[in-house]
């Protein structure tokens, strides 16, 4: 299925969603989804986001970015939260790699929760994250390090955690990544 | 004009120190009373509201500490068309000076009022009517007062000019509406920069007045003019100049091009940095319970969406929300400190409209 076909499906889904109040059961349905469901959602989100980045016509761009944000809030984030929970207790490399692909693509997103939850996941399962990060090219690894550093700057718990800071710093050295982190956020 | 249409002519928000104490609407008319909160109820004389109804709250001076120190009224009457409204507006001037010889308002023909009354009213009523108008005419002539046309806040107005040359607005004509009431008499109020002693000043006899009416929160001319202007703009359907500005350090709320409120705010430095400059549509205000990064120090979470209007950006998920966590955002506008007041203002605003414009412009220093 190409992204345009998926978009049409989504337009249909979004018109239904617009007319209803948020149903808490929906979140539960996503939360009880399998790893395969989560991966499907992540793959779609990446394709959708990359298409949005390339969008040229301003009119179409506004329509697509609006749908993308709708998808983000209603579908992607519940799946992302579920994914973080799973990876905190299981070494599912396949799922972890898809999550990292999502984070690399979503470098354009202002949603802080993507970075902070990733930071918490790295704190609880650093071995899995590093192993999966090594399969990414340098640009991807750099984006992921930026997420981890942002998480340190944004989240109170992580900010106060010296061990987390040191772990990220050592990871940067091992991966030979240099980042131009915002002032005051560089982990020394 | 239906009752509902008439009610829509009044703004929904008033300045912070004013409270709506009475409102009445019916087909073709809406009346409103606004009371000003007494900034020093223990020491300054206030007014007690003794009667409410039909939009006119009646206030009396009081010796006890009172919540309010001033009550103003506004009455708006709507006519079927501009021409009819103009005729009635002019009758405010012609009937007191010409009596029954004045033209009858509300007709397209130039019929003197007396002819119409004589044609339809019983003899007894005609006599009573004539005597009342004659008496009014004489009293007006004896007082030396005149009724003159002029402009009030740029709108067509009728003024009563007293023997001492004091000018008071009697009515304002806008489109097919006539506005009257004592809130229009703002010219009789002192300006906001009038010097007075501060409420907290303990040494009044030792130095000249150390503050102003505006600074101490008393009623002053410009504020009442601002209320009237907001009503005029609403009647004209021009009540849109409400917008937000983010300058890198503060979120500023402008109403009728005047600063209405400001909140310390931040955007960036994480992710792809601060919000790109340009115009945004602010919409979709909602509470947030699922993300600590959007909680203010009281644990109160909310957000609005930001839609970029100045072309294209690949930035997504941009929002305004409380700046939770450590401080800073990935491009959203994070409001520092307690945010409930801003949330409540946005909630009241979005109760009336779907969106508000945000203009993001950084100073040269901010850009560095």
Helix content of chain A: over 70%
Pair of chains with the largest interface and how many residues each contributes: A-B, 34 and 27 residues
What is the alpha-carbon Rg of chain B in Å? 26 Å
Across the major sheet of chain B, the strand order is: 12-13-14-18-17-16-15-19
| Count of DSSP H/I helices of chain A | 10
Main beta sheet of chain B: strand number and arrangement?
A: 8 strands, mixed, barrel
What is the domain total for the residues of chain A? 1
What fraction of the residues of chain B are assigned to beta strands by DSSP? 25-35%
Which descriptor suits the 3D outline of chain B?
elongated
Order of helices and strands of chain A: HHHHHHHHHH
The largest pleated sheet of chain A is described as: none
Please, how many helices of chain B?
A: 8
Poorly predicted sequence stretches spanning 5 or more consecutive residues of chain A? 14-31
Q: Rg of chain A to the nearest angstrom?
A: 17 Å
Shape of chain A: globular
**What is the residue-mean pLDDT of chain B, rounded to a whole number?**
86
**Secondary structural class of chain B:** alpha+beta
What does this protein structure show overall?
The complex is a heterodimer of chains A (188) and B (368). Chain A is globular, with a radius of gyration of 17 Å. Chain A has 188 residues and is mainly α. Chain A has helices at residues 3-18, 24-31, 35-54, 58-89, 93-105, 112-124, 126-133, 138-154, 156-159, 162-175. Chain A is 77% helix and 0% strand. Chain A has one domain. Chain A is built from ten helices and no strands. Chain B has 368 residues and is of the alpha+beta class. Among the domains of chain B are: 3-78 and 182-235, no CATH class; 242-367, L,D-transpeptidase catalytic domain-like, CATH 2.40.440.10. In chain B, 23% of the residues lie in helices and 32% in strands. Chain B has eight helices and 19 strands. Chain B has helices spanning 3-7, 82-98, 113-120, 123-143, 213-216, 221-235, 340-350, 364-367; strands spanning 18-26, 29-37, 46-51, 58-62, 68-78, 146-152, 155-161, 167-174, 177-180, 195-196, 211-212, 242-246, 250-255, 258-266, 278-287, 302-308, 319-322, 333-335, 356-360. In chain B, the strands form four sheets. An eight-stranded mixed β-barrel of chain B has the order 12-13-14-18-17-16-15-19. A seven-stranded antiparallel beta sheet of chain B has the order 1-2-5-9-8-7-6. In chain B, a hairpin with a 2-residue loop joins strand 8 and strand 9 (177-180). Chain B is elongated. The chains are: A mainly alpha (188), B alpha+beta (368). At the A-B interface, helix 3, helix 4, helix 6 and helix 8 of A face strand 16 of B.
